[in-house]
Structure formats: structure tokens, C-alpha cells
Automatic annotation (TrEMBL):
Keywords: DNA-binding, Sigma factor, Transcription, Transcription regulation. This is RNA polymerase sigma factor (Sigma-70 family). It comes from Actinocrispum wychmicini. Pfam families: Sigma70_r2, Sigma70_r4_2. InterPro entries: RNA_pol_sigma-70-like, RNA_pol_sigma-70_dom, RNA_pol_sigma70_r2, RNA_pol_sigma70_r4_t2, RNA_pol_sigma_r2, RNA_pol_sigma_r3/r4-like, WH-like_DNA-bd_sf. Belongs to the sigma-70 factor family. ECF subfamily. NCBIfam families: sigma70-ECF. The keyword DNA-binding applies. It comes from the Bacteria. Gene3D superfamilies: 1.10.1740.10, Winged helix-like DNA-binding domain superfamily/Winged helix DNA-binding domain. Residues 121-170 form the RNA polymerase sigma factor 70 region 4 type domain. Residues 27-87 form the RNA polymerase sigma-70 region domain. GO terms for molecular function: DNA binding; sigma factor activity. GO terms for biological process: DNA-templated transcription initiation.
């Protein structure tokens, strides 16, 4: 007998998930758009929205298969999205706190020195290889993390983190060459 999954309630679909993965597919189709909207409200970075939603769906599926009783699927899913976003944000903050703060040379606060510093920064940035410029721009200005950069460049997140580190180090070295001791 073929069961029309669209006619079943969320609670009934959750009970069917143990033996029928298509039941979870129906839950996914029902709640994906609302989950994306919720992720948009939580995360500022649009590249994270899909990842948050997909990871939350995987998490909820694993919990259901482990025997967890999910009475209100949508509420459970939204809570999973929020918790994953918080965990990732805290991990991201901890990673960035480990980087040393760059001491910029002290310059007088006059328009000429500010303009000169801006020109020096621009020249240092333009002297970097294109790959380093992309890594610096996307991380510092756009707020991308190594995971997001990895999808753009087709590299692993670890490789992108190393690329970002090398780009910052090279930029610092080129910039400091402009200010002899």
C-alpha cells in the first residue's frame, strides 16, 4: 500500500522516518523555506544560510534515528539552526582571537599623513599576488571565513585558512617596508 506522505502530519512523518527515508524528504520539503528564512534572521553572512539549514536537517535526522522523540518538528529544527549558528560563531570568534593584533606605525593625525597612510596601504595591497588580494578582501571586508572561501576557490578550509594567514603576513611585511625604522 502506497502512503500519501503529503497528507500526513509532521508528527506522523517523524514516526515514519525510522523505516522510510522518503518521510524525512517530505519534512525537508515542507520546512526548508521557513528554515532558510530563520537562518537569514540569525546569520549576517548569506553564504552560511544554506549550510546552517542543511546541517540542522542532518542533526535533526540523526536525533530522530537515535530515538529522540520530536513532537514539534519545526520548533526542533529552528532550535537546531539557532544552536548551530551560536556554536559556529563562538568557534569563529575563538579562532580569530588567536591571531596577533598588528601594531600599525604611529603617524600624526593630519590630513597629509592620513592620505599618505592610505596610499601606502593601497600600494601594499596592490603589490600582493591576486590570490592574496582576494583572500584579504573577502576575509577582512566581506567577512568570509575559510569555509566560505573554500567553496569559491575549490580548496579545503584548512588550505584557505593558510592562504589567508600568508596573505596577512605578506601584506604586513610589504606595508612595514614603507616605514623604515
Amino acid at each position: 500500500m502506497v502512503v500519501d506522505l503529503t497528507a500526513l502530519s509532521d508528527r506522523e512523518l517523524v514516526t515514519l522516518v525510522q523505516g522510510d527515508q522518503s518521510a524525512y524528504g517530505e519534512l525537508y520539503l515542507r520546512h526548508r523555506q521557513v528554515a532558510l528564512a530563520h537562518a537569514r534572521n540569525i546569520s549576517r553572512r548569506h553564504a552560511e544560510w544554506e549550510d546552517l539549514v542543511e546541517e540542522a536537517f542532518v542533526h535533526v535526522l540523526a536525533r530522530i534515528q537515535a530515538g529522540c522523540h520530536v513532537n514539534h518538528f519545526r520548533a526542533y529544527l529552528m532550535t537546531a539552526i539557532r544552536n548551530i549558528a551560536i556554536t559556529e560563531s563562538q568557534a569563529w570568534d575563538a579562532r580569530w582571537e588567536s591571531y596577533a593584533v598588528v601594531d600599525l606605525p604611529r603617524v600624526a593625525h593630519c590630513p597629509e599623513s592620513i592620505a599618505m597612510t592610505a596610499l601606502t596601504v593601497r600600494a601594499a595591497f596592490e603589490n600582493l599576488p591576486e590570490r592574496f588580494r582576494w583572500a584579504l578582501w573577502l576575509s577582512a571586508v566581506e567577512g568570509w571565513n575559510p569555509g566560505h572561501l573554500s567553496t569559491l576557490l575549490g580548496l579545503s578550509a584548512n588550505t584557505c585558512a593558510a592562504l589567508m594567514y600568508r596573505a596577512r603576513t605578506r601584506f604586513k611585511a610589504v606595508y612595514q617596508l614603507s616605514f623604515p625604522d
